[in-house]
Design brief:
transmembrane helix, Major facilitator superfamily (MFS) profile domain-containing protein, MFS_trans_sf, Growth Hormone, Chain: A, D-glucose transmembrane transporter activity, disordered C terminus
Length: about 220
């Protein structure tokens, strides 16, 4: 069960990006995009994530889970900073609304090619068969609660922070990138025991015993 709490920050963090879809039209309107163009731009954001998700599935076994996660969150943090700068300057510079739109697309591209694809695969690799149902139950419940909180709080965040409304999401991206860098091992091509041992080395700086975990030798869903 320890892996559940180690991985919760990583599994929950992508849903802080869901405000892009809850309030896409509102975000583009605040960014200065003409109202008659907003529906087409929203369609473009969905198309971007579809393309990047397919791309992520194609390269995830080649690039590895950790680099995609780390790079995705770093780029998301960078685009959030540029987006806030563009919002603050859009009344002074005529082309800033287009930069804001480009930042949103880049943010979604970074999210789709990294966290969006990897976090769907990661739970099956870091949890053994005995703890996997409990892990999915806990993570699933917290994910839906997170969606509710983000969807409810985002309008108030925009109202209170104005041009700096992406600071909370910037903080989440930076913290998650640091978590991946310091605590999450690469899981590509490794067994659960190897991943668990690597977790122990990274989190507690001690070498775990290879034979400590004892689970069922074989679990079958139906009799043969």
């Amino acid at each position: 069960m320890g892996c559940i709490f180690r991985c919760l920050p990583l599994l929950l963090s992508p849903f802080f990006s869901s405000q892009m879809y809850f309030y896409a039209a509102y975000v583009f309107q605040e960014a200065g995009i003409p109202e008659d163009k907003i529906p087409y731009v929203v369609i473009g954001t969905g198309s971007c994530e579809l393309i990047t998700s397919v791309t992520c599935n194609m390269i995830i076994d080649y690039a590895g889970r950790r680099p995609l996660l780390l790079g995705g969150y770093i780029f998301m943090a960078a685009w959030a900073i540029v987006f806030m700068v563009a919002l603050s300057q859009q009344t002074q510079i005529s082309w800033m609304p287009y930069l804001s739109m480009a930042c949103i697309f880049a943010y979604i591209l970074s999210f789709g090619i990294g966290p969006a694809g990897v976090t769907g695969v990661l739970p099956t690799e870091v949890f053994d068969q005995m703890s996997r149902p409990a892990a999915y139950m806990i993570c699933g419940s917290l994910l839906w609660f997170n969606l509710f909180v983000v969807g409810t709080a985002f309008p108030f965040i925009v109202k209170s922070l104005a041009h700096f409304c992406y600071i909370p999401f910037l903080v989440v991206c930076v913290c998650t990138a640091l978590y991946v860098w310091f605590f999450l091992p690469e899981t590509k091509g490794k067994s659960f025991l190897e991943i668990s041992e690597e977790f122990g080395k990274r989190n507690f700086k001690t070498k775990t015993r290879g034979g400590f975990y004892k689970g069922p030798e074989e679990i079958k869903t139906t009799s043969l």
